[in-house]
Structures are given as structure tokens and as C-alpha cells.
Amino acid sequence: DYAKARTFLQAAVQAGYTQNDPHLMLTETYVQQNDAAGGLRYLGQLIDQQIAAGQTPSREHLRKALAVAYT
Fold it and tell me: Is the entire prediction scored with pTM above 0.70?
């Protein structure tokens, strides 16, 4: 159940969990439900937050966004 998984992953992210990049797993929950736009929206917001914080966006996040957009 991808919707339940997304709920738990969002709670983990809010609690500060960073192992295994939960953001990529969250994105995948959208993709697996045939909601590529939702996955791209999620990653886009994350990338925008990184840029706003003066950080370089994660290479893995950029790659995932490209892969989702391509499919």
C-alpha cells in the first residue's frame, strides 16, 4: 500500500530520518501509483528548498527527477 508507505516515510522525514534517502523512496511511492507528476512535484519542492538554503541539490534527487520525467 503505497499511500500508507508515503505516510510513514513523511513522518520519518519529519522526525529527521535520513538513512537510505527517504526522499527517493517517497518519490517512488508516487511513481508506483502512476502519479509521476506528484513525484516530480515532491522532488521539485525538495530541490527548491535545497537551493533556497544555499545548498547544491542532491545529484541523486536530480537524477531521479530526470528519470521520472522521462518515463
Answer: yes
